């Protein structure tokens, strides 16, 4: 069994991004990311800080807009509209979840597709569907990057994704399909889940439940990708996979922390680089 080291893959991709940002800078093009956070959610604050740190590491200028909890949808749309027209800003990221009173769908749809570095806008999700895209959603894109880094073949492989969310499960399935995997998507209504997951050469768990994937659900020699970010009873960060129980059955496995997580921010930086090149 080999552990897929998300930090090492991430460091290598960030090095490449840093070089490309530097080349743009030398040609007179600065790269900028606007990061919007509304309210006081502690997890969101940690994510936003890590995104800002990632920007600094590779030479992207980050502009933070920290808005109070009581911000209205209209006020947020006004800011996004301003950023859509701001030439310093190549990418706009609005940290989710937003407070309940804000209309999240309208907010996502208001970001100019060419600045939508999270790739959540319907125009970008449509491009992903037909395989003609500038931006890929960060978590699934990071997973494909890790598989490629470890020379793990996707073509012709049985791929099973547990989870069908718009930000992870569905685009993950689509990217595996674009890479010629034979893809099955499972969800909470899937019957005999373990029977389906045991077919997987590549199993991606994006459920949001600690220790959900157990050894009896995994085929010998499978590649297991754990997207989950959960807290166990002791408050420790853990994934969706029972790592200790599953690891000896796998050929490759991602740990939590240190697997998929570091790649997500790296792919956001990569999307910002793409936006900057397109905006030259
Ligand atoms: P989500 O929107 O809650 O989706 C969870 C999915 O799991 C749903 O499709 C749900 O099915 C399915 N599910 C729930 N219970 C199930 C069961 N018993 N059997 C089979 N499927 C089941 O979550 P998400 O946003 O995709 O995130 C998933 C996990 O990834 C979370 O832990 C999140 O924190 C983590 N995450 C990590 C990163 C990272 O960078 N590492 C990024 C994003 C998310 P239904 O559709 O039928 O309800």
CA radius of gyration is 19 Å
- How does the helix and strand content classify structurally? alpha/beta
CATH superfamily of the largest domain: NAD(P)-binding Rossmann-like Domain
CATH architecture of the largest domain: 3-Layer(aba) Sandwich
Our estimate of the beta-strand percent is 15-25%
Given as residue ranges, the uncertain stretches (5+ residues, pLDDT < 50) are: none
Helix content estimate: 40-55%
Give the class-level CATH name of the largest domain: Alpha Beta
CATH topology of the largest domain: Rossmann fold
Number of strands: 11
The topology string of helices and strands comes to: EHEHEHEHHHEHEHEEEEHEH
Q: Main beta sheet, described?
A: 6 strands, parallel
Bound molecules: NADP nicotinamide-adenine-dinucleotide phosphate
Overall domain count? 2
Walk across the major sheet and give the strand order.
1-11-8-7-5-6
Number of helices: 10
How do the strands and helices of this protein lay out in sequence?
Layout: E1 2-3, H1 6-26, E2 32-38, H2 42-58, E3 61-67, H3 73-84, E4 91-94, H4 104-110, H5 122-129, H6 138-149, E5 158-162, H7 169-178, E6 182-186, H8 193-197, E7 202-205, E8 222-226, E9 230-231, E10 237-238, H9 243-246, E11 250-253, H10 260-278
Helix pairs in contact: 1-10, 2-10, 3-4, 6-7, 6-10
The protein binds NADP nicotinamide-adenine-dinucleotide phosphate (NAP).
